Protein: Putative pterin-4-alpha-carbinolamine dehydratase
Amino acid sequence: MIERLSQTRRREALAGLPGWQDVADRDAIAKTFTFPDFNAAFGFMTRVALVAEKLDHHPEWSNVYRTVAVTLATHDAGGVTERDVALATAMDQIAGAAA
Amino acid sequence: MIERLSQTRRREALAGLPGWQDVADRDAIAKTFTFPDFNAAFGFMTRVALVAEKLDHHPEWSNVYRTVAVTLATHDAGGVTERDVALATAMDQIAGAAA
Structure:
């Protein structure tokens, strides 16, 4: 059973994840990515989907044309865990590589 | 310039699109698709993305694990047009083929 991050660890993790923020009304973190166009946005989603499936940890996300809004939380733990940090880190790497 | 559907045409189109409904607070139509798992849900999204790019008409959509919630509207027309009917029809066909 994976555990929710301590406040200290969560602050530390968010400090290393630019643009990721706590969600106001639930225990989750979120970020909105913006790309040049739909092709780039969906390309990002496709690469992330492969990583998510491999990690067996999936984002909640929405896409409107060239933006992708992501929320991460670990349902089994009822909050943010190292799994979310790992997926957020992978998303930032993929978005950086695509930009 | 593409025009918004007449009420008659819109009713007719929705009658042929099971599960699609008017959105309460804006001029748009919406449907939530549910698949066996994330693999199937994202596979659906990938096939739809290719169609959307070809049509140059893109959905607003969100994905949480095995569900995909879609909203369609034509921004240039400020409402629902034949472009949305075409994309909704393609989505239903793809979802049916994937199921």
Remarks:
- Chain A touches chain B through 16 residues (CB under 8 Å).
